[in-house]
Amino acid sequence: MLQASLGRQPIDFGDPRRLVDGPGLAGVSGRYFEGEKEARAAEEAYRPEYRARLCELTDRLLA
């Protein structure tokens, strides 16, 4: 079990192995999780201009 503390209250991230080899997530890809719960990515991740910029930077770094 993973735990982090923000301020005084611990956050329980559950068992991260569930996200890797859990039978309920077989074949699942491209989703985001906060602890045990599925969540949305930051709003920027859905903006085409940010995605294009990420592709440009990735191409430059890998060239």
Report on this model:
This protein is an alpha+beta fold and 63 residues long. The chain has one domain. The chain is built from 2 helices and 4 strands; from the N terminus they run E-E-H-E-E-H. It has helices at 17-21, 48-62, and strands at residues 3-6, 9-12, 32-34, 37-39. The strands form 2 sheets. A two-stranded antiparallel ribbon has the order 1-2. Strands 3-4 form a two-stranded antiparallel sheet. Strand 1 (3-6) and strand 2 (9-12) form a beta hairpin. It is elongated, with a radius of gyration of 16 Å. It starts with a strand and ends with a helix. 0% of the residues are buried.
Structural class: alpha+beta
- Write down how many β-strands occur, each being a DSSP E stretch of 2 or more residues: 4
Global mean pLDDT: 78
> How would you sum up the global shape?
elongated
Strand content: 15-25%
> Structurally, how many domains make up the residues?
1
Q: If helices are DSSP runs of H or I spanning 4 or more residues, what is the number of helices?
A: 2
Could you spell the SSE succession in H and E letters? Answer: EEHEEH
Q: Which bin fits the share of residues in helices?
A: 25-40%
Main beta sheet strand tally, sense and closure: 2 strands, antiparallel
Notable traits:
two-stranded antiparallel sheet, two-stranded antiparallel ribbon, elongated, alpha+beta, 63 residues, 4 strands, 22% strand, single chain
Task: Tell me the layout of helices and strands.
Blueprint: E1 3-6, E2 9-12, H1 17-21, E3 32-34, E4 37-39, H2 48-62
Antiparallel strand pairs: 1-2, 3-4
